[in-house]
Write a structure and sequence with these properties.
5-stranded antiparallel sheet, elongated, single chain, alpha+beta, 4 helices
Length: about 150
């Protein structure tokens, strides 16, 4: 999508993405090697009663869904960061995750008219409808110079 196609209140949906156990463990072994992400036997006795995905993997899945649904072919070039990130429920192997991205606002930077700024909320839900990710992201877009009268 192009920057001009985004507008406040717009909802973009994507997915589902099914997370397999091997993918969950592989990510955790590489980037978040905590026992409740990497050891299925030990995780059964843990507070979550089983293996759960890293929150950072959940963010990566959301990024993939957003890229496929909205950012492919756009002028997006970077993000200065997130306002917040929350993981209200754990993600488990076999979960089918769906994205809902809601545009909060869009604007051109007043000091740099070739910079488009998009603020949006990304939420991931499992098949049972439980929210597993909630974040607010800012995306930056390189825009053509606006004509001025």
């Amino acid at each position: 999508m192009k920057f001009v196609e985004f507008h406040a209140g717009q909802v973009i949906e994507a997915g589902p993405y099914e997370l397999g156990e091997a993918e969950l463990i592989d990510f955790a072994q590489r980037y978040d090697p905590q026992w409740f992400h990497t050891d299925p036997q030990a995780a059964v006795a843990g507070i979550h009663s089983g293996l759960i995905a890293s929150g950072w993997q959940t963010c990566g899945i959301a990024m993939r869904l957003v890229a496929d649904a909205a950012l492919q072919g756009s002028e997006s070039f970077a993000s200065p960061g997130l306002a917040y990130v929350k993981w209200p429920h754990p993600v488990r192997a076999g979960d089918r995750l769906s994205l809902r991205a809601t545009v909060i606002d869009t604007r051109r930077a007043s000091s740099k008219p070739t910079l488009g700024i998009l603020r949006w909320r990304w939420q991931l839900f499992n098949a049972a409808g439980h929210e597993v990710l909630d974040l607010e992201a800012t995306s930056l877009f390189h825009l053509p110079q606006q004509d001025t009268p």
